[in-house]
Amino acid sequence: MTSQVEAASSTGVPKQPGPAEGESALPELRAMWWETGVRARAEAGVLAVFAELPRLLAEALRTSWRADRTRTLVVAGSTIGSGVMATFGLLATQRVLVELFAAGPTPDRVWAALPALLGLAAAIAIRSGLGIATGYALNGLTPRVDCEVERALFATTTAVRLDAFDADAFADDMERASRGSSSVIDLVEGALNFLAGLAGLLAVAVAVVVIHPLLLLALLVATLPQAWASLRAGHERYRTYIAGSVRRRRLWLLHQLMADRDSAAELRSYGLRGFLLDQYDRVMGAETRIQLDLARKVTTTTSLGSVVGGVATGAVYALLGILLLDGQIPLAAAATCVFAVQAAQRALTAVTFQIDRIYAEGQHVSDYTGFMTRAADYLPAERAGRPAPGPLQAVEVQAVSLAYPERNSPAVDDVTLSITAGQTVAFVGENGSGKTTLAAIIAALREPDTGAVTWNGRPLHDWDTDRLRERIGVVTQEYHKWPFTAATNIALGDIDAEPDQHRIEAAAARAVAHDMIVELPHGYETLLDRTFANGQDLSGGQWQRITAARGFLRTADLLIMDEPSSALDPRAEDALFQAIRDRQGRATTILITHRLANVRHADRIFVLDHGRLIESGTHDELVTAGGQYAELFALQSAGYQSPR
Questions:
Q1: N or C: which end of the chain has fewer CB atoms below 10 A?
Q2: Average pLDDT, the chain
Q3: What is the spatial distance between Cα 460 and Cα 451, in angstroms, rounded to a whole number?
Q4: Is 606 helix (H, G, I), strand (E, B) or coil?
Q5: 236, burial (CB in 10 Å: exposed 0-12, middle 13-18, buried 19+)
């Protein structure tokens, strides 16, 4: 925590860094996924924005078309229809005014204007109906776009190889892609709203040209100043947003520290309330001053645009007066032009807002589409028609090596060993010796860089991977606390088989978890997540029992148990290892643990050091050999002897 807030406390008010300043110094200074779009918008000029617009619009329309063709057509048709009706409405308005301003008795003028008036009413009604149709179609389109895009993302992230998550670039890509998936619908909505606003502008332009071509120039003069001011103000907002990225990350961090359940106990134990509130006041004070300065700049820009626009609008009205006095346009046309100017200003405001939105959200969508393309490199190779493996007879590890990215030495280094059906074997060694990585390779979760692992004499990649994994159970050291009921947490161990309650309880009993679960408020139906109503939290040891039960549920030929008892009390640990010993001779078990007393019964013990296999044998053989295993066992044994 200190490393993440010390900069704020040492300087009082954090300075505003440039886009890349300090990003490698502290985690909080790293550019975050939610800033990608606004950072791009802040750095892009107006010409760059307009140059990118066609591609982003095309991407939005393609996505919308894939998600729901019918609703996309409805929106497109309604948008075009609304533009046509807007044009017709302005022309009908002009005709109504022409008839009303004509000479003659009032009743005659009203009757003469009635057809145009009815046409205007019809245009307004049709346009309103089209607006309702557009809203209805968009409401239905939104969940379909969300579903298609998110499901495609999750289908990819759950299919890529495990080694993908070792690459920093992949993790960053995936984080940004998650933001991009939620931006797709914003891009689609922004694109459709932009096209609707553009249709409105074109409708006004057509109507004005029909009245008098010179009025089109006047219309541009009246509307462009405010459009410029709107784009300029948006640019200033984006620049300020990016300049404040460090402050926002600090604020987000402080929000987490002061309102998170995980930090609540230590916050109170060390009396950190005043310290954290002081950090908040410092950072928020700077943020408030920046926002006030932004408000001043934006107000100045928009006010200037309004003043220039007002002057330009006044010039347009003066031009209308001159044209009226010269008899070049009738009074009805001038009045219609006033309506057109107001309509154009409203449409242009909407269009400029959507341009900023499309560009910013489009960058996030580009992150998404780019990730989906690059993630294909991490997808497992398709091997159609691979056979399903039979019951385990032997596993052979042949000169296997694997190195993680940006590591100086391999995690597993030229390891060769064999395991026969029914054996219980143990992988032991100090932290970082490669035990867990080797087990993951045997479990077909990782592919070695060199060497091979065979199941019944055939390389793992020659078998149907899904069917192979059905024969392997894995209890991981870094287990996940799934936010489901206790029964479901155990059932995840064999979810495809839809295990019944009897099997679930039997697995829990073997893992010494049954009595603990029964004592929960709702027994096996207790939700194991405190963030939901009536949810419960478990201790580390209780969670470890649930995890072990998940592994026991699957009637696996090979069960890999990685540190299954690190948080268990002595009684529970003894019962768990008794259940593991019961498998000996019937099924195959790979046991990884630092508690060497629990591996004395193993048929064979493999000792690893810095990724290399340095010893193997039974407990008695290794103790007699006097190597690393004997040394580690002696150290642990000494801890249980009475002091002299």
A1: C
A2: 80
A3: 11
A4: strand
A5: middle
Sort residue 557 into left (φ over 0), alpha (ψ -120 to 50) or beta: alpha
Instruction: Go through the domains of the chain in sequence order and give each one's CATH number.
Output: 27-377 (1.20.1560.10), 392-471+557-578+585-644 (3.40.50.300), 480-555 (3.40.50.300)
Region 339-368: mean pLDDT is 75
Query: Residue range 394-402: average pLDDT?
Result: 95
- For 433-557, list the strands marked E by DSSP: 450-455, 458-459, 472-475
Strand partners, 605: 426, 617
- Residue 561 corresponds to which tokens in the numbers above? 């148990």
Residue 420, classed as helix, strand or coil, is strand
Amino acid residing at 281: D
d(C-alpha 348, C-alpha 224), whole Å:
8
What are the structure tokens assigned to 512, written together?
């010494």
Q: Once rounded to an integer, what is the mean pLDDT over residues 40-46?
A: 57
| Alpha-carbon gap, residue 532 to 493, rounded angstroms | 23
Q: Which helix (H) or strand (E) holds 183?
A: helix 168-211
pLDDT band for 11, please (50, 70, 90 cuts): very low
Instruction: Supply 451's token pair.
Output: 């060497």
**8 A C-beta contact, residue 75 and residue 134:** yes
pLDDT category, 490, cuts 50, 70, 90?
Answer: very high
- Considering the entire predicted model, what is its pTM? 0.69
| Beta strands across the sheet bearing 412-420 | 412-420, 394-402, 450-455, 458-459
Task: Compute the half-sphere exposure of residue 253: CA atoms within 13 Å on the CB side of its CA.
Answer: 23
Q: What is the dihedral of CA 582, 586, 588, 591, to 10 degrees?
A: 10
Mean pLDDT of 227-252: 69
